[in-house]
């Protein structure tokens, strides 16, 4: 069972990135998927989550107008489109798959935004 994130990088303030997370070894469509981030010295926080069949989607308030989460169950992939990035968005971004008591984390992808 594995989640692999990609798409991070270094961008200037106002730029955009599209993060991807590919799952393997799990019944992907049955999981609630989410993106979290952790900046140095700070706690990990939920960025966005998307339930099975995208029935429910939630966003961190500070990203609500700048982020879009989506899923493609056929490709076992979720995406996080980040627009109008700010330096405070700099963090390691992690993908998570959750179903009942099971919680699976990826290794993360770094997003760095310079002013």
Helical fraction: under 10%
- Order of H and E elements: EEEEEEEEEEE
- Largest beta sheet, briefly? 7 strands, mixed
Structural class: mainly beta
- End-to-end distance, in Å? 38 Å
Mean pLDDT: 97
Number of strands: 11
Strand content: over 45%
Poorly predicted residue ranges: none
Number of helices: 0
What coarse outline follows from CA principal-axis ratios? globular
Rg for CA atoms: 13 Å
Structural key phrases:
single chain; 115 residues; mainly beta; 7-stranded mixed sheet; 4-stranded antiparallel sheet; 11 strands; 0% helix
Question: Can you put this structure into words, describing what you see?
Answer:
- There is one protein chain.
- With 115 residues, this protein is mainly β.
- It has strands at residues 2-6, 9-12, 17-24, 32-38, 45-50, 57-59, 67-72, 77-82, 91-99, 102-105, 109-114.
- The strands form two sheets. Strands 2, 4, 5, 6, 9, 10 and 11 form a seven-stranded mixed β-sheet that branches.
- Strand 4 (32-38) and strand 5 (45-50) form a beta hairpin.
- The N and C termini lie far apart (38 Å).
Give the secondary structure arrangement, pairings included.
Elements: E1 2-6, E2 9-12, E3 17-24, E4 32-38, E5 45-50, E6 57-59, E7 67-72, E8 77-82, E9 91-99, E10 102-105, E11 109-114
Parallel strand pairs: 2-11
Antiparallel strand pairs: 1-3, 3-8, 4-5, 4-9, 5-6, 7-8, 9-10, 9-11
